[in-house]
C-alpha cells in the first residue's frame, strides 16, 4: 500500500508565479494547511483517503517568504490571466503539480478543483 506523509517536516510545498517563488508549507502553518476529509487522523495520505489543501496567500510575506523580494506585496499574488503553480513534493514519490490560470474576474476566495 502506497502512502505519503503530509507532515510539514516531510512535505515541501512551493508557490510560483511570473514574479516570485517561495515555500508555503512549514511549521508555522499560517500560509498552507492540509486537513483530512476522510482520513484516519494520522499525517499519512493512504489509499482511498482525501485531503483538502487551503492556502492563504495574504500570509505570504513579500519581505521574507519569496524570492526574489518584490517591490510590493501585490507582486506576491498572481494577477488576472497569469498562471500560478503549486508543487507538493513528498519525501518519497512523485511531485504533484497544480497549474492554473487566474481568471479576469476573481474573488477573495477561489476553489481549484
Compact description:
This protein has one domain (3-101). The chain is 0% helix and 35% strand.
Structure explained in plain terms:
The protein is mainly beta and 113 residues long. It has one domain. Helices cover 0% and strands 35% of the residues. The chain contains no helices and 8 strands. It has strands at 3-5, 11-16, 21-23, 32-36, 44-46, 51-55, 83-90, 96-101. The strands form 3 sheets. A 4-stranded antiparallel sheet has the order 3-2-7-8, with no helix packed on it. Strands 1-5 form a two-stranded antiparallel sheet. 12% of the residues are buried. The model has no long low-confidence stretch (mean pLDDT 84).
Order of helices and strands: EEEEEEEE
Helix content, binned percent: under 10%
Going by helix content, strand content and strand pairing, the class is: mainly beta
Radius of gyration: 15 Å
Topology:
Blueprint: E1 3-5, E2 11-16, E3 21-23, E4 32-36, E5 44-46, E6 51-55, E7 83-90, E8 96-101
Antiparallel strand pairs: 1-5, 2-3, 2-7, 4-6, 7-8
Please give a handful of descriptors for the protein shown.
single chain; 113 residues; mainly beta; two-stranded antiparallel sheet; 8 strands; 35% strand; globular
Amino acid at each position: 500500500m502506497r502512502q505519503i506523509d503530509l507532515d510539514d517536516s516531510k512535505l515541501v510545498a512551493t508557490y510560483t508565479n511570473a514574479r516570485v517563488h517561495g515555500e508555503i508549507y512549514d511549521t508555522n502553518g499560517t500560509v498552507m494547511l492540509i486537513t483530512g476529509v476522510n482520513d484516519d487522523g494520522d499525517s499519512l495520505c493512504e489509499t482511498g483517503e482525501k485531503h483538502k489543501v487551503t492556502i492563504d496567500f495574504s500570509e505570504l510575506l513579500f519581505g521574507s517568504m519569496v524570492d526574489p523580494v518584490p517591490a510590493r506585496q501585490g507582486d506576491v499574488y498572481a494577477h488576472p490571466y497569469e498562471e500560478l503553480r503549486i508543487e507538493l513534493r513528498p519525501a518519497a514519490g512523485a511531485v504533484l503539480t497544480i497549474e492554473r490560470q487566474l481568471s479576469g474576474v476573481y474573488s477573495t476566495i477561489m476553489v481549484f478543483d
